[in-house]
Specification:
- This protein is of the alpha+beta class.
- The protein has 25 helices and 26 strands.
- The chain has a seven-stranded mixed sheet with strand order 14-26-25-24-15-22-23, sandwiched between helices. The chain has a six-stranded antiparallel sheet with strand order 6-5-7-13-8-11, covered by helices on one side. A six-stranded antiparallel sheet has the order 16-21-20-19-18-17.
- Helix content is 51%, strand content 17%.
- Helix 11 runs antiparallel to helix 23.
- Among the domains are: 72 residues, 2-Layer Sandwich (Alpha-Beta Plaits), CATH 3.30.70; 148 residues, HAD superfamily/HAD-like (Rossmann fold), CATH 3.40.50.1000; 118 residues, 3-Layer(aba) Sandwich (Calcium-transporting ATPase, cytoplasmic domain N).
């Protein structure tokens, strides 16, 4: 929670030794005297403070007074609370399943063994048994009856409706027989009290399976939550003190020692170190971080002590955003899931109609005892058609699939992205930072107009000094190695897809590609044009430097191709996906990189708006297009594509406009995301097909289709077991995604 200074905040402090009434007055007086405007209330063995001061300052004041003070965390972790609730839900379902199962089995065994009395002599015994079953139904299944009542008031029906009708009809028909044994011939053989509670036992077992499936899918989130640090060492004017991270504020200075996790997102303000970012990127090697670099909460400090300034708190941190993305994806519903909802809205009334028709047929045309047969078939149809498996088919697969993706450093924003990623025919990628390392270096400088190499670098670096482009950093790095001061320039302006221009003493200076300088009316020297072409053919990027009247020089920058880029391209091609390179770089350089990687479709020298046009054209041709980007200028294309993939190392704007965030720089993660999405959608279709086959076979059997040939009717209790088995099948099939491997 971000609580700026000057805004009253409430937090709790535990004190040792336990303060007396006089101590509380003393604490209040001293805090007031030391400019801590605090409301001091002692409750439940702790001190409640409401103040505008920083919690660390208050803690330091209390320590000065002589108390051993410790701040409490602001609130419990919601995921830990959810985990506890899940465990309680599973335990509750087990208790309900055991209660209903024990009651049902006792009635079944006692009746079949002849231990229980028969009707009409045992009417009192069976009346008490019915009452016990009613209590069991209340304890183990009242939520179904409440849900069915709500649906009835809305003039709708759902799974609760079928459960309530099936169990209610079984119990009520048994009560009628107990009240009037002559109502049915051979009535003692047609009580359904055991079925009325055994159905609930199987339903509770299904609930356990569903809850365990959700618990399993939350392990990926739990692992991320476990990376968060609970406390941080905060520096204040009066000293340093340990504070829960939930009480940190923007701008706090935190000391991070070697071997400690970074407590919160921030910027290094003192020192340098190497950070293990594998939890975000999947890369095992630690990366160098120095003053001015951003670091992420939950990563590991491997080497040196540094001071961090907090820049993000709470839900704004990288870890919190990752957890939010996974949760939202798990809770979202793809179009196929919404289709299931529409199907269920029709399916349930149809099942009820089939049950009524089956009852009417058996009561009018069936053999004796007709009412017993009619009740058996009607209840069996309602129970076996219970759409528990239908309700599980989509959400369990989505939850397992998105969690498996998160374990592979692929964060899927919602299930629509899951669906679209599985249907892609094209993936559009930029070159710099995605196919290449994104860390270009100046490999050659060719001066013109009597300038030296150092002077060309000085002018180029002066023009690039305000830019954040990777090529700009390469030029500035090369200039720092050669030395020399930067020139003061005015009116620096970046021209998208072209370069940068500035002025000095009324003279314009330009740095960019050949088109940019030609647009300024400059003639490119023939020998430098030849050299630029040769270098571009070897994968270099020519950058031209000029002033108002002449060309000043040529710089060659090279960005090495990523080691895993070729494997990623092969993996995508193997899935039937065409990779399209779209880059602002010159044609020769782009084609040189494309040849190395096996990319045939290349679009070079593009402005950001022209990338959008490429995507638009591919979509007009019937293609499903994915876009991979990592920079601000990629955001429009990410938003326009059917599926946008943002590299986790990219800008916030790119990530916010993407459907899938890849926690790393490897293009292999795109192939991983597509493969997991396809596997998840395939699993959903398998689940739905299985549920359809199950109902297509089960409902006719429950209605008595085989009775004319075999004399066999499906007992409602066995129908409930079959229903539970279908749920087991759906959950088991979805959990196969946990073991998914690319290739």
């Amino acid at each position: 929670m971000t609580t700026p200074d000057g805004f009253p905040d409430t937090f709790f402090v535990t004190l040792q030794p336990r303060p007396t009434g006089e101590d509380l007055e003393l604490i209040s007086d001293i805090l007031q005297a030391r400019d801590v405007d605090a409301e001091v209330i002692f409750e439940e063995g702790r001190l409640r403070l409401t103040t505008e001061q920083h919690p660390a300052d208050v803690l330091l004041r209390l320590t000065d007074i002589g108390f051993q003070a410790e701040l409490e965390e602001r609130e419990a972790d919601p995921l830990l609370c959810q985990a506890r609730e899940t465990r309680m839900e599973i335990r509750g379902s087990w208790r309900r399943a055991l209660l209903a199962g024990t009651a049902g089995l006792a009635i079944m065994v006692g009746d079949m063994s002849g231990f229980f009395p028969q009707l009409p002599q045992g009417r009192l015994f069976w009346a008490l048994t019915a009452l016990v079953c009613l209590l069991v139904m209340y304890c183990c299944g009242r939520n179904y009856f409440i849900g069915a009542w709500r649906q009835l008031r809305l003039r709708s029906a759902n799974m609760d409706t079928l459960v309530a009708l099936g169990t209610g009809a079984a119990w009520l028909s048994s009560v009628i027989v107990i009240a009037d044994p002559a109502f049915l011939p051979t009535a003692g053989n047609h009580l359904y009290l055991d079925a009325s509670v055994m159905i609930l036992a199987f339903l509770q077992l299904g609930r356990i399976l569903e809850t365990r499936a959700k618990q399993t899918t939350n392990k990926a989130i739990g692992a991320l939550v476990g990376l968060r640090v609970r406390t941080a060492r905060v520096f204040r004017a009066a000293g340093e003190v340990e504070v829960p991270v939930s009480l940190l504020r923007i701008g706090d200075h935190i000391l991070v020692r070697p071997g400690q996790k970074v407590p919160m997102d921030g910027v290094i303000i003192s020192g340098s170190t190497t950070i293990d970012e594998s939890m975000l990127t999947g890369e095992p090697l630690a990366v160098k971080r120095q003053e001015g670099d951003a670091v992420t909460g939950g990563t590991m400090n491997r080497s040196e002590t540094f001071m961090l300034r907090v820049t993000r708190l709470g839900d704004e941190t990288a870890l919190a955003r990752i957890i939010k993305l996974v949760r939202e994806a798990q809770m979202s519903k793809p179009p196929i899931g919404r289709l299931v909802d529409r199907f269920a809205a029709v399916f349930i009334p149809v099942v009820i109609l089939i049950s009524v028709v089956a009852f009417a047929y058996w009561i009018t045309m069936g053999p004796e005892p007709r009412l017993a047969h009619a009740l058996t078939t009607a209840i069996a149809v309602l129970v076996i058609a219970c759409p528990w498996a239908l309700g599980l088919a989509t959400p369990v697969a989505v939850m397992v699939g998105t969690s498996r993706a998160a374990q592979s450093n692929v964060l899927i924003r919602n299930s629509d992205a899951l669906r679209t990623a599985a249907t892609l025919s094209h993936v559009v990628v930029d070159k710099t930072g995605i196919l290449t390392e994104g860390r270009p270096a100046v490999t050659a400088v060719f001066p013109a107009a009597d300038l030296t190499e150092q002077e060309v670098l000085q002018w180029a670096a002066s023009l690039e000094s305000g830019s954040g482009h990777p090529l700009a950093e390469a030029v500035l790095t090369a200039q720092r190695r050669t030395g020399g001061a930067l020139f003061d320039l005015a009116n620096c302006t970046a021209v998208a897809g072209r370069g940068v221009r500035a002025e000095r003493e009324g003279i314009g200076f330009f740095l960019g590609n050949d088109h940019f300088l030609i647009e300024q009316g400059l003639a490119l020297p023939e020998h430098l044009v030849t050299e630029a072409g040769r270098q571009a053919g070897e994968g270099g990027t020519p950058v031209w430097l000029g002033e108002s009247r002449r060309v000043l020089g040529l710089l060659i920058l090279k960005d090495p191709v990523r080691g895993d880029a070729a494997a990623a391209i092969r993996a995508l091609h193997g899935m039937g996906i065409t990779v399209v390179m779209c880059t602002g770089d010159n044609r020769t350089t782009a084609e040189a990189v494309a040849r190395q990687l096996g990319i045939v479709n290349v679009h070079s020298e593009l402005l950001p708006a022209e990338k959008l046009q490429v995507i638009h054209t591919l979509r007009e041709q019937g293609g499903k297009v994915g876009m991979v980007g990592d920079r601000v200028n990629d955001a429009p294309a990410l938003a326009r594509a059917d599926t946008g993939f943002a590299l986790g190392s990219g800008t916030d704007v790119a990530i916010e406009n993407a459907d899938i965030t890849l926690n790393g720089d490897s293009l292999l993660l795109v192939a991983q995301a597509v493969a997991i999405s396809a596997a998840t959608m395939r699993t959903i279709r398998q689940n739905l097909f299985g549920v359809f086959i199950y109902n297509a076979i089960g409902i006719p059997l429950a209605a008595g289709l085989l009775y004319p040939f075999t004399g066999w009717l499906l007992n409602p209790m066995f129908a409930s077991a079959a229903m539970a088995l279908s749920s087991v099948t759906v959950v088991a099939n979805a959990n196969r995604l946990r073991f998914f491997r690319l290739g």
